[in-house]
Amino acid sequence: MSLKNQEVTYTPSGTRAERKSLRKATTAESLPQKRKLGQRIDEALERRGARERLVGDWGSREPQSLWGPHRLRPAPHRASTMTFAAAYPFLTESGLGHEGTYIGTDVFGSGAFSYDPWILYDKGIISGPSIVVIGTVGTGKSMCGKSLVARSITLGRKAAVASDPKGEWVAVANAVGGKVISVGPGRTARVNPLDAGPRPSSLSDSQWQAVVRQRRRQLIVALVSLMRQGTPLHPVEHTALDMALMETTAENSTPTLPMVLDHLLSPSAETLALVGKDGGAAVSHSLRRTVSGDLEGMFDAPSTVAFDADAPMMVMDTSALIGASEQALSLAAACSATWLEAAVTNPDGGKRLVVYDEGWRMLADPYMLAKMSEQWRLARTYGIANLLIMHKVADLNEIGDSTSGHRQKALGLLTEADSRIIYRQKHDAMRLTKEALGLTEAECEHVENLPKGVGLWKVGNRSFIVANRVTTDELEVFGTDDRMHL
């Protein structure tokens, strides 16, 4: 054998006859072996066919066999997320975590639901600690607010109720070891709304004096505006008021409203030179309402009570004013809230929930709305979480129409809250609720059909249906419909 131009050439051995004879002999010897091999193959194929006919496509049912289809080709399945959440628990909402105050049960996830505005702010889930609770009468909104406040106190938080017009928070304060200040006709407590309040350690003497002076001036201007149905003060009246407040403070470090009124009615020579004889006359007559008539004996003397910053809860009980005129209620709310604000806005006072019950009345008052807007913006600075409780967004229609600046400002206060808790609403109120609080169609459908004690919680960009759970002892304290039961 040799290679030449990559071609193989060879010379066969023997003659052609010899090679043919050799092939015949080899074939004769291997034929029986080939027949036996073919027979064994046929037998194996026959056994395999019988076995396949016995077990089918799903294999053998013997214990050691993994019985099942050889090829999995499931039919396509289509379902809603609601069905998947029920069928596959790992697809349900994980909740906000275990940290914070226990509220109740996540209806869809079946787990415990806890909430704390400061913890959620630290985690970046919400951008502000303010809370709005909305629900019609008898749906459980008050129970929810009281549960959140009382249980937060057990975790080291504090609380303050700016005005309790129905006296519902008095029992809560007594239950948690708090203090109650009751003002109104026949009550012995006196509250001076011009008190300076606790001084923050970070402010210098001049800074603190400027803060106190501005706070007092804003209150007196608000009281006069309320008496004049919102009519603004004239420039000369502002001057007369400033002079009266300055002269009063110079004589007494803790002025009272009667003292300011005396300087308005009997102006000094310097004031007369600036505003004339009648410059402060109209202001003085408007301010006189706060020291006489239906508010006499409430805010016209030095305080006989003090705000206890160490108490777990402080409540300003104004239930004695039930039946008073709207104007008197607004004046009382302004004085109470200003006095309380001077105490709770101290950054050294710790984390505190500030409750505004019957929020629609607060929002209807221009002064209170301005103070609430300020506390909404500065809540993080003060370390407070505002809790506004009201019946429905449609209550804002009483403030003005859609073009009213006051109404738009009040509506903006609701939309700025990053935690919104909505209990059952009637169908005719849902359109405004949806627009104001940014609800989806599915959320609106749920809100209209929520049972008592169950609410929609919109926390940041997440939504939960939560059933508020209360103990028997809590129900006795938080309940507001005892007289309705037989």
UniProtKB/TrEMBL annotation:
Name of the protein described by the UniProt record: ATP-binding protein
Naturally occurring in which organism (per UniProt): Paenarthrobacter aurescens
Keyword Cell membrane: no
Record field: compositional bias (Polar residues): 1-14
Alphabetic keyword roster: ATP-binding, Nucleotide-binding
Spans annotated as Disordered: 1-39
InterPro entries: P-loop_NTPase
Record has Hydrolase as a keyword: no
Gene Ontology MF, one: ATP binding
